[in-house]
């Protein structure tokens, strides 16, 4: 498909395997987490996928939280016993206890949440949905900004992803969706630092010195003026001060006293 696929920057271990079906035939709109049924390392999971079994996943999360990449997102992994599901799903094998309910270590679950957030963001999704119902999930047509959670047990006689994770799928969807819709804080404007000392007393027409340079520097930075910082309070500086005072509803007297200085600093 003519799609610009990317892989997660959270990956800490890469071992690409050839057990996949090539480029996927459906855009990504599902995530299918699995349980490994073993507390494995990222390297061990790579060994499994490189062995004789016809199995793989896009990502794996090791027992220490390391994210492994085994099949690039552009390719369909062999993970869910369903060609239709794996063509459209990012599959994630997660280290788990070897016995039911196949619980995850806290770091593995936390990493799964982060990885799902990243997958959704890079694929333009704002919602991760969990319906808890096989028929509804598999027949639902996601909107362009939606991703749907599916599970392996819907496609084969398996308990995967285990009752531990299955009971938390709603929590997973909620945490990911909340993170995707957090308001982005505006990037703070860098505060410029004036190289000249602020004058202790009022500065007015005809004055000279560093106090005037402080005024000229602030007028250039805060008001967009293009004064020559020469330390001489001449006609151009006077006109710029008057313009600034009028704009900020200060007494338009061309004298830079404490109120005008405070307004100049605040306007930076």
Spatially, the strands of the biggest sheet line up as: 1-5-4-7-3-9-8
Stretches with pLDDT under 50, minimum 5 residues: none
Mind describing the biggest β-sheet? 7 strands, mixed
| CATH level-4 homologous superfamily of the largest domain | Peptidoglycan recognition protein-like
Based on Cα principal axes, name the global outline.
elongated
CATH topology of the largest domain: Lysozyme-like
Number of strands: 9
Question: Your description of this structure?
Answer:
With 268 residues, this protein is an alpha/beta fold. The protein has helices at residues 42-50, 83-88, 106-122, 134-139, 162-166, 169-180, 210-223, 235-247, 258-266; strands spanning 11-14, 20-23, 30-35, 59-61, 67-69, 75-77, 89-94, 127-129, 146-149. The protein folds into two domains: 11-180, Peptidoglycan recognition protein-like (Lysozyme-like, 3-Layer(aba) Sandwich); 187-268, Orthogonal Bundle (Muramoyl-pentapeptide Carboxypeptidase, domain 1), CATH 1.10.101. A seven-stranded mixed beta sheet has the order 1-5-4-7-3-9-8, with helices on both faces. Strands 2-6 form a two-stranded antiparallel ribbon. Strand 8 (127-129), helix 4 and strand 9 form a beta-alpha-beta unit. Helix 3 crosses helix 6 and helix 7 (210-223) crosses helix 9 (258-266). The longest helix has 17 residues, at 106-122. The mean pLDDT is 95.
Any key phrases for this structure?
268 residues; alpha/beta; Lysozyme-like; Muramoyl-pentapeptide Carboxypeptidase, domain 1; 7-stranded mixed β-sheet; two-stranded antiparallel ribbon; 9 helices; 9 strands; elongated
């Amino acid at each position: 498909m003519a799609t610009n696929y990317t892989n997660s920057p959270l990956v800490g271990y890469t071992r690409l395997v050839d057990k996949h079906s090539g480029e996927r035939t459906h855009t990504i709109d599902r995530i299918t987490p699995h349980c490994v049924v073993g507390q494995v390392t990222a390297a061990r999971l790579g060994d499994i996928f490189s062995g004789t079994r016809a199995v793989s996943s896009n990502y794996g999360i090791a027992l220490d939280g390391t994210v492994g990449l085994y099949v690039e997102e552009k390719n369909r992994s062999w993970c869910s016993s369903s060609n239709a599901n794996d063509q459209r799903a990012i599959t994630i094998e997660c280290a788990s206890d070897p016995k039911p309910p196949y619980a995850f270590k806290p770091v593995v679950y936390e990493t799964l949440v982060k990885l799902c957030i990243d997958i959704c963001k890079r694929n333009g999704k704002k919602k991760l949905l969990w319906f808890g119902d096989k028929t509804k999930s598999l027949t639902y047509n996601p909107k362009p900004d939606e991703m749907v959670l599916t599970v392996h047990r819907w496609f084969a006689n398996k308990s995967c992803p285990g009752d531990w994770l299955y009971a938390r799928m709603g929590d997973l969807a909620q945490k990911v969706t909340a993170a995707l819709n957090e308001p982005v804080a505006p990037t703070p404007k860098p505060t410029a630092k004036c190289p000249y000392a602020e004058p202790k007393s009022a500065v007015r027409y005809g004055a000279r010195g560093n106090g005037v340079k402080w005024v000229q520097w602030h007028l250039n930075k805060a008001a967009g003026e293009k004064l020559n910082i020469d330390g001489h309070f001449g006609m151009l500086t006077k006109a710029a001060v008057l313009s600034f005072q009028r704009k900020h509803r200060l007494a338009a007297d061309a004298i830079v006293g404490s109120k005008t200085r405070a307004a100049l600093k605040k306007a930076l």
